[in-house]
Amino acid sequence: MGRLVVVSNRIALPDHSKNGAGGLAVGLLDALQEQGGLWFGWNGEISKITGEEEPLQIEQDKNITYAACSLTQNDYDLYYSQFSNTVIWPAFHYRLDLVEYQREAWEGYLHVNQLLAAKLFPLLKQDDVVWVHDYHLLPFAAALREHDSQQPIGFFLHIPFPAPEVLMALPDYQEILRLMTAYSLLGFQTERDAKAFVSAIAHETELVTVEQGVYQAYGNTFHVHDYPIGIDPDSIRKLAEGPLPPKMQAIRQGLGDAKNIIACERLDYSKGIPERFLAYESFLEKHPEQRGNVRYTQIAPTSRGEVQAYQAIRHQLETEAGRINGKYGTMSWTPLYYLNQHFDRRLLMKIFRLTDIALITPLRDGMNLVAKEYLAAQDPVNPGVLILSKFAGAACELTDALLVNPYDRDEVANAIYKATTMTQEERVRRHAVMMNVLSYQTITRWRETFLDDLYEISK
Ligand SMILES: O=P(O)(O)OC[C@H]1O[C@H](O[C@H]2O[C@H](CO)[C@@H](O)[C@H](O)[C@H]2O)[C@H](O)[C@@H](O)[C@@H]1O
Ligand SMILES: O=c1ccn([C@@H]2O[C@H](COP(=O)(O)OP(=O)(O)O)[C@@H](O)[C@H]2O)c(=O)[nH]1
């Protein structure tokens, strides 16, 4: 079996200093730690030297070799902030109202993909298998093939793939689809995403179905399948069970007898945080007897802070949190704790274990690893309740969560009430069913099933 080469925009460098809070880096680190290999991507830094001239930063940590490069300010703006995060991200999360399209950004996006491919190509060995990740790198295989790369190249999309009508709003969608078919295998989080991709191509060009999951279009043959990303439940359980740091002892006392609701995600409009604040308000309105008995903590570290839509949502949350606390708070009770801070993942798992309800209601989400982590962090004898948006990829597997429509304030408020009053027996039953799913569909299984398929195809 050849060496695994993973390519992603965000990589988790060993010193952790530039590592973001996202699930992609968390999931890939877990996957690579087991198998080892080369991880190539952006080091999170902006440099003044143009990409072509800058030497790669090479680091070794146990069985992973890191090859990272920085981006110039201009490349970062066009490729990451603008095209990736102001065109593809909003569109693929069904927020066409937030798309700000500029042709210059599309060209910058293609240019950085070509630049990264040119940097990776000399590092590749003949029997390597290349696995590329996420929406920043949709044209990467096509760019690598221009160097005559013969290695099998797989791709995994961590975010949703939109319905064709939504995709078609992007001026370059036909070219995007064509470039994507240069991959040998395309993996998606859910069957719904995989189907949306295939139907978008069928809508544009002649699509030949060679057999189930194998297609031909634009002169390319490619395989399409869903591979829901998972977690490592055992390692999360160990983190969650571990001793509490002294600071946490105080937090635990501070939690008191109230039912603690937790929500945690990057500060992103796709996560549905303002809608959730309003649903919580609705719950407090409908159930005045619960005031003083619940406490909602929202952890939301800043993400992509240079993008205007992210700045806007940050202001919106500050205003809303202040308004709700001003309206319902008392001298002895604060209904909502809003923490615009990044938490270390090891600490987060302990917090998850101490809380009674996880309120995870994204408007759209590729998967949502926090939902899975929350379950794995629970005490199986006395677990908390997961309230989960039906529009998160995780909802396809976690059908025993309290599934809600995040746009429906009343439904979310009712789910909060149901969660606060759920019997221990029901909590244990739901948790056990979902843990069965998570123990099977682990991060290892995700990696193995994808790579087995890719190796098989390359034969
Ligand atoms: O790299 P950033 O711009 O700081 O953003 C963080 C990551 O966010 C997205 O994560 C997605 O991947 C998760 C794991 O598969 C999935 O659970 C989640 O639903 C997705 O939103 C993004 O896709 C990554 O590329 C970013 O690194
Ligand atoms: O303050 C934070 C917030 C989130 N996370 C981690 O970031 C990941 C978020 O992944 P998810 O799939 O839920 O969403 P994404 O951010 O990738 O869209 C999870 O592993 C979280 O534990 C973290 O370490 N610290």
TrEMBL record:
EC assignment: 2.4.1.15
SUPFAM superfamilies, per database record: UDP-Glycosyltransferase/glycogen phosphorylase
EC supergroup of this enzyme: transferase
Coiled-coil blocks: none
Pfam families hit by this protein: Glyco_transf_20
Keywords: Glycosyltransferase, Transferase
InterPro entries, A to Z: Glyco_trans_20, Trehalose_OtsA
Pathway: Glycan biosynthesis; trehalose biosynthesis
Regions crossing the membrane: none
Molecular function terms from GO: alpha,alpha-trehalose-phosphate synthase (UDP-forming) activity
UniProt-listed CDD domains: GT20_TPS
Catalyzed reactions: D-glucose 6-phosphate + UDP-alpha-D-glucose = alpha,alpha-trehalose 6-phosphate + UDP + H(+)
Protein task: Probably involved in the osmoprotection via the biosynthesis of trehalose. Catalyzes the transfer of glucose from UDP-alpha-D-glucose (UDP-Glc) to D-glucose 6-phosphate (Glc-6-P) to form trehalose-6-phosphate. Acts with retention of the anomeric configuration of the UDP-sugar donor.
Similarity annotation: Belongs to the glycosyltransferase 20 family.
Quaternary structure and interacting proteins, as annotated: Homotetramer.
Protein name: Trehalose-6-phosphate synthase
Upper classification of the organism: Bacteria, Pseudomonadati, Pseudomonadota, Gammaproteobacteria, Enterobacterales
Gene label: otsA
